[in-house]
Amino acid sequence: MFESASRAAADAAHLISDALAKAGRTVAGNVRRFGRSTSEHANLLRAHEAESAIRHRNTLFRNENPETRSVPGVEQHTDAPLPLPEGAVHARVAETGWNTDPITLRSHITDAGTVIPPRSLSEGTFGAPAQFDGLFTSRAGLTELFRMNIEGGVRLDRLEPRTPINPHFNCHGYTFSREGEAGWLAGRRVEDILSDNGFRRLSETDAPVPGDVVIYRNSDSVITHSGVVADANSAEVHVDSKQGPLSVVRHRLTEVTGMYGSDVSIYRTERPDGRFLTPVRNSTETAPPWPPTPPPEP
Known about the structure:
This protein is an alpha+beta fold and 298 residues long. It has one domain (2-286). Helix content is 35%, strand content 15%. A hairpin with a 6-residue loop joins strand 7 (223-231) and strand 8. Residues 64-83, 274-298 are annotated as: Disordered.
């Protein structure tokens, strides 16, 4: 029963994604024909995003612990979480560092004309399950999220950090926009990006190269995570990916499947700009400050 219900939720999310893609193409057409403000259209799309986010959130945030499926030509790893010494998480977070200054966000457009407005942290985490309440709004909360990732099977305590912790963009924002300027790019947008921007899924005979995009899906085929091939010269493929609001880390291809799902695919595009979406002119805005300013006391 629960499996069929979750599949129905995934199907509904896919239909919502199609509707949003059509709306994005309409926006692009209006901008070209009538010169209307891109920011106005971005706000309209944001409203659609907010309405659909709550329906999609349960599958987006649901963690899994599936049996890792074999990926052709890639050695499998099933590292189990280990008890952490007292203070290890805080020490690792301090070593990783923080970069919480507001960044520039902007709208982007796919090659097929789908306009994708940026999303802030609060928009991207709207409707998250109760266990995440308060974790996205303070350093203490993100430190706890760091610990929860380790317990979920992503060994952040021993993965190589590539950037400081930055809460202003997520994994998809890192994968598909320069400097994370797409912000908290929704996973349901990624299917459109792969289709619109000419990505092809690599076959068993294709050798991954740096810059290829790695997509993780759960058992309902919902995209849960993405990253970029960083090194394919050794016996193992290594990936750079951002762990939600935390840092970009380098890990083995299948080292995060315990949390994000065992359906792992690698994609490539021959576009001049590669994996990066095209920014929309005159669409820049500044991400809200973090931590957010608390509301005044009554």
